[in-house]
Amino acid sequence: QVQLVESGGGLVQAGGSLKLSCVGSSRTFGRDFMAWFRQAPGKERAFVAAISRSNSRTLYADSVKGRFSIARDNDKKTVYLEMNNMNADDTAVYYCAADTNKIITAPLSATPDSYDYWGQGTQVTVSS
After folding, report:
1. 22-50 pLDDT, tens per residue?
2. Residue 90 contacts residue 78 (beta carbons within 8 Å)
3. Is 118 helix (H, G, I), strand (E, B) or coil?
4. d(CA 16, CA 112)
5. Which residues contact 26 (CB under 8 A, 6 or more apart)?
């Protein structure tokens, strides 16, 4: 069983920054594709960013391009989401997700169904 634990959420003012972390327990973490999703109240879970095994490929939602950055440290089994220039629309519960079944050449996915393990989420609130 793979466990993912997010941290780093909190309250931030509009225009501010926040960095989320997600620590995984998978023995295959270095081979897993990782992603961040978010869910605002009353809305469906939405894709934020994804990263391949070795930081070589990333994918971002249009709404966060140029503001958010995803990275990973496989030695620490941790994936990060650095969020800058935040606005009220970024308010949501942020979830870390892992796809443990991807081959190395597979494309990154923005679809929740592609990911087989999820964290419990961390709340991010942006005040205007």
Report:
1. 999 988 898 899 999 999 999 999 999 99
2. no
3. strand
4. 28
5. 2, 32, 77, 98, 100, 117
